[in-house]
Structures are given as structure tokens and as C-alpha cells.
Amino acid sequence: MAIQYVDLLTIGAGGGAYPAAFRLAQAGRSVIMVDPKGAMSGNCLYEGCVPSKAIRETAEIYQSQQRLAGHGLAGAISIDFTKITMHKDAVQARRYEQHAAELAAARNIKLIQGTARLLGPHEVAVNTTEGEQRFHCAQIIIASGSDIFIPPIPGVELCLTSHDLYKPDSALKTLPERLIVIGGGYIGLETATFFAALGTKVTLLQKGEQLLSGMDPGMVTLLTPLLDPAIRIRTGVDVTAVTLTPEGGRRVHYTRAEETDTLDGDVVLMAVGRRPVIPVGTTEIGIAVTRKGIDVGPSLQTVHPHIYACGDVNGRVPLFHAAVRQSMVAAHNILGGNIPLDYADFNHVPTTVFTLPAAAYVGLTPALAEAQGIKLRTGRYDFAEDSRAQILERMEGGIQLFFAADSLRLLGGWVVGIDAGQLIGQIGTAAAHGLTAYDLARFADQHPMSAEGIGKAARSLF
User: Fold this and answer.
1) Which pLDDT does position 75 carry in this prediction?
2) What is the pLDDT of residue 270?
3) Does residue 1 register a pLDDT over 80?
4) Burial 337-375, CB ≥16 within 10 A → b, else e
5) What pLDDT does residue 76 have?
6) Omega of the bond prior to 19 within 30 degrees of 0, cis?
7) pLDDT by residue (tens digit) across 369-381?
8) Of 2, 206, 426, 429, which is least packed with CB atoms within 10 Å of its CB?
């Protein structure tokens, strides 16, 4: 079998791969991207960020119309969930076409549909429908992403997953009357609020006592009472099986406080987490893999300096925008001859939980600060006093900014409520660049916009 020589091979074609691939190709390097789906953009576009938010934004518009029904918006909006999923599909198709055009216009890049495995530090085999191809690679970026975790529960095949809900031509095209969500992480909780807003009766079962496990308990405590009260949330639940009901629905069997019980629904969503996809041969060539993923530092390099691991596969910050930045770090370090010139900042990546309403955070939050012995001063702004929130009748939640007690340098913050996903990037930029409460207080942000609350939260300290 002939071996092909390539400057860069990426295992994956999502956010952790294609930014570096295009950058290296622009520099004249030969690039091969390998992906099982044979398309750019990874899970974010296929079953994650984009399709889920297409449904989320539709649900929020419907929710807003209901909220403002008594303020001049007469007439009810009817829900056609089939058309909502068609809109989602259309957005995905449009973006796939956009990525295909970008790829077609690029030089020095080839995308192969297949599955890659590592044969050695420089050798990669790719299994395709037409047979196996082998490559000698000067550089390798492992960006194989993550996949849904399916727990070994009897009857789990009767459940849908986020893959089923959000993939193109999704498995669920009619709005269920009753939805049971197993898992209180961001995927499960977000989906629960989307469907509740559209009128589905939702019950969420969470194994632990806290929703959004791993996030700051203070933020979760602020968010939880703002969620649709129609969502029935049961914590401390251990699901033992899923079976069919006589009517063809789904029955979830579980234990709670040593008592057994069942719950019936039309659809069950299994959303208990994701795990990294580690290419075959990774550990065999000496690359360390932890429970979270491939072990890398801020340079994204593995034990082999020419092999990088970017995005969900390293588990450091499993978000698409973090993967894109990591991919560019890898590209810069490859162009520097595998001598680190650029480093990923894992501490200032904004994270948004796109529930209705949303919550977002970045940087150091109180629970982390307490664990590290760091003293904070907190600036606060409640959306109850915000003009934009009042206009839209969305006055719940607010902004909290966390400053170093001595220097008043911004270390982190969170937003719960209106525009959380838009505001957290501005807060993250300020924290990443070492701005202080004085800097934020001096900036004249727009009125009447919720972003002016950032400066007001800073001024609350003075």
C-alpha cells in the first residue's frame, strides 16, 4: 500500500480542526482532514449548538409573545413542531452549504470521509468505503470531538438522545404531550425548558441533588426558581430501567430515597453527558488519556510535540468556541516549528446554559475562589431596575461581577436572565484583559440596553 505524505492531518473536521487546517493551507502546507461524516463543522452543527438553538429561539419567541399578550400583541401563535424542525433542518443545510463552499474555494486542503487510527507518531491509517489509505504526517491534530454517553440501563434503546432530537431530519417531528428528561446537565435542562415553553408537560430526573452539576451552586440557585414552574424536577433519582407501557408510551423505573417508583411519558430523553472520542492507537503511541480526555496543556501539545489535541477530545473546555481558539493555538505553534508561541486560555472561556431564561458565566466564580482561598468583592445589578428588561417584561435575574478584593481587578462574573449569552462575552473580554471595576465603571455603555448593567454592577462597589 502506497503511503501518502502530508504536512498536516486532522482527525476530525469540526471546530478543533478546520480553523488550523485553513490557516496551515494558507501558509502553503498540504492538509488532509478526516471525518466520519465527511463534512466540516463537527457535532456543533450536526447535533449540538446550532440545531438546538434553532429550536430554542423559536420557543423563546413564542414565550415572549405569551408574556406580552396583554401589552398589545393580540392573537395567539399556533405551534407546528414539524415546521419548527424543518426550520432547524434548513439552518443546518444552509450552514453545511456554506462550509462546503469554503472548502471548495480553499487550496491545499482535502476532506476524506472515513475513520482514522494512529499507527505511530507520524503514521495514520484511514478506513473509507473505498478501502484503507495510509499517511505519513509531519503534524497531526486530534480533534475527534465527543459523543453522547449511553448508560447501561435496561431499555435504554427506548430513549431518544440529543443526537436523535437535533440531527438533520431528526427522529422527533411531533410535539409530545409528556416528555421525561433523564439528566439535569445543560443538555437535559435546556431541552426541558424548550419543550415546556412549547406546551409539553416535562418531568426532569436528576441523579445528584444539584442541577447543572459542576457549575457554581450560587448561580444554579439563582437560576432554578426562574425556570418554568410547570417543569417537575426530581433530584436524587437513580433510573433503573425503561420499559414500554401498554399504550406504546415509555415507563421510567427509578429509585429515590430507597423507594421505587415509575413515571410514564410519551418520549424519554436520555441526557446524562458526553465523553471524548479517542482515536484507536492513541494510548499505544504513548499519549496520556485521562477520564476527561487527552491530556494537554495550554500549548495543546501531547507527549509528541508535533501531535496536538484540540476541542472536546481533551475535555478542558468542551465548547465549540473554545475548540476554535484551541485550533488556532495549534496552528500558530505548528508554524513556529512546534515551539510554543501561543497558548490557550482555559480560564476565560464564556459558558452559557441556554435555558429559558439563560444563565452564563466566565472566569473565577465564588465557589472556585473559596476553594482557592481568594477573597472577592462582588458588584451586583438586578434586572428589575433595567430598562430593557422592563420593556420586555423580563425582569428576573441580574448580573454579578467578581473582583479581586485588593486590586478590584475583574476575575469573573455571571449573568442570569435576559441577554445572558450576549453579555457574558463582554464580561469575559474584560476579565481576560485584566480590566478593573474602575475601567468598567468609566465605560459609557448603550442605553437602553442590558449591557449598561455591567458598568452599574461595577459602580455598585463605590
Assistant:
1) 66
2) 98
3) no
4) ebeeebebeebbbbbbbbbbbbbbbbbbbbebbeeeeee
5) 67
6) no
7) 999 999 999 999 9
8) 2
In this prediction the pTM is 0.96
Calculate helix-pair angle for 186-197, 49-67, nearest 10 degrees.
40
Confidence of residue 71 (pLDDT cuts 50, 70, 90): confident
Asked if residue 406 lies in contact with residue 414, where contact means CB atoms within 8 angstroms, the answer is no
Helices 420-432 and 452-459, packing angle to 10 deg: 50
Contact 424, 415 (CB under 8 A): yes
Report the C-alpha gap between 391 and 395 in whole angstroms. 9
CB-based burial label for 292 (10 Å; 0-12, 13-18, 19+): middle
Q: Hey, CA dihedral for 114, 119, 121, 122, is it positive or negative?
A: negative
What is the pLDDT averaged over residues 7-29? 98
Q: How far apart (Å, rounded) are the C-alpha atoms in residues 60 and 78? A: 14
CA angle 425, 427, 433 (to 5 degrees): 100
In the numeric block, which cell numbers belong to residue 206? 436528576
CB atoms closer than 10 angstroms to residue 448: 11
Separation of alpha carbons 211 and 223, rounded Å: 10
Q: Which residues neighbour 146 within 8 Å (Cβ) at sequence distance 6 or greater?
A: 43, 274, 275, 276, 277, 293, 312, 313, 318
191: part of which helix (H) or strand (E)?
A: helix 186-197
R_g over Cα of the chain: 24
CA neighbor of 308 nearest in space, from 320, 322, 295? 295
247-287 per-position pLDDT tens digit: 999 999 999 998 999 999 999 999 999 999 999 999 999 99
Q: Which helix (H) or strand (E) segment is 325 a member of?
A: helix 320-335
By the 8 A CB rule, do 174 and 44 touch?
no
